[in-house]
Amino acid sequence: MILLNIDLDNTLIYSYKHDIGTDKIPVEIYEGREISFMTGTTFRRLQKIRDKVFLVPTSTRSIEQYNRIDLRIGDITYALVCNGGVLLVNGKKDPQWYEASVQIVKKSISELMTAFDLLEKDPRRKFELRFIEELFLFTKCDNPENVVADLRQKLNNRMVDVFHNKEKVYVIPAGLTKGNAIMRLRNLLHPDFVIASGDSEFDISMLHAADIGIAPHSFRETYDLDFPLEEMSGRNVFSDELTETLLRILQIENGGTEIEKQFNLL
Questions:
Q1: If pLDDT is split at 50, 70 and 90, which confidence band does 258 have?
Q2: Sign of torsion, CA 170 108 159 223?
Q3: What is the mean pLDDT of residues 136-149?
Q4: b/e for 204-214, b at 16 or more Cβ within 10 A?
Q5: Which CA distances in Å does 98 have to 82, 84, 89, 103?
Q6: Which of 183, 211, 209, 178 lies closest to 195 in space, CA to CA?
Q7: Euclidean distance between CA atoms 82 and 85, whole angstroms
Q8: pLDDT at position 253 over 50
Q9: For a pLDDT cut of 90, what percent of the chain falls above it?
Q10: What interhelical angle do 178-189 and 95-106 show, nearest 10?
Q11: What are the pLDDT digits (tens) for 24-60?
């Protein structure tokens, strides 16, 4: 079994705010509006890729946000959401996985509550403060870079990680990472091989934990990483380059894929 742990936003799908050309497929509807899309090229390639891997969407999205997405590739057995804190099995929350995540969060609960108090009083916050599934904090702020810098200075960075994605600000327990989720999923499913792909700081641990990590152009340099990555050229939309690379390394020849031959999995 080959697992493909793949981030969603800006890796496989794109907000309507991104220009990905006119050949695109709507994959997310919110309040009657099409708000996320997949390029037509990525969509067509994904139909081939899904037959060769066990695809596991791996996202920081909440359950509600994830459920708005339809990748149009049929039923998805497993999905990791809430930064790996929740495992959906056939669309339903796995209670044992969630309880293990809660135990991880307990180690950082004091710092999370400190962050909650700081953000609650921060005049730069412009959105409600959410404790997503009682796992991590999320809000939106003006000057998010400064908010993150201030929080990192005031919090114990061994207990929590602070990120921002544009105006969105997250405070996440140190053990609640996508990389840790991959290791937990390995123990559950015992795959032969894991491929992971993502585009942001949230995905670094996942790329590191996989057997092959696939990232956008200059990702290693951007985040000063010291582990191997397959980096794309940056000449085309990342999802198109990603799916082209996946088809290459999954190409079936003489009874096996390139991965199976290279790593003696046959």
A1: low
A2: negative
A3: 97
A4: bbbbbbbebbb
A5: 10, 9, 12, 9
A6: 211
A7: 5
A8: no
A9: 92
A10: 140
A11: 999 999 999 999 999 999 999 999 999 999 999 999 9
Question: What's the rounded Cα separation, in Å, for the pair 245 and 210?
Answer: 16
For residues 171 and 165, what is the distance between their CA atoms, to the nearest angstrom?
Answer: 12
Q: Select from 193, 194, 121, 112 the least CA-distant residue to 159.
A: 112
The SS3 of residue 167 is coil
How far apart CA 49 and CA 240 sit, in angstroms, is 13
Question: What average pLDDT is seen over the chain?
Answer: 93
Supply the DSSP symbol for 137.
Answer: E
pTM: 0.92
Instruction: Please name the residue that has the structure tokens 């999905």.
Output: 79
From CA 73, how far away is CA 50, in angstroms rounded? 7
Bridge partners of 37, per DSSP, are: 14, 26
Torsion region of 31: left, alpha or beta (phi above 0 gives left; psi -120 to 50 gives alpha)? left
Over range 166-172, report the average pLDDT.
96
What's the pLDDT score for residue 81? 98
Is residue 260 a contact partner of residue 245, using CB atoms and an 8 Å limit? no
Q: Which of 11, 133, 26, 15 is nearest to 81 (CA)?
A: 133
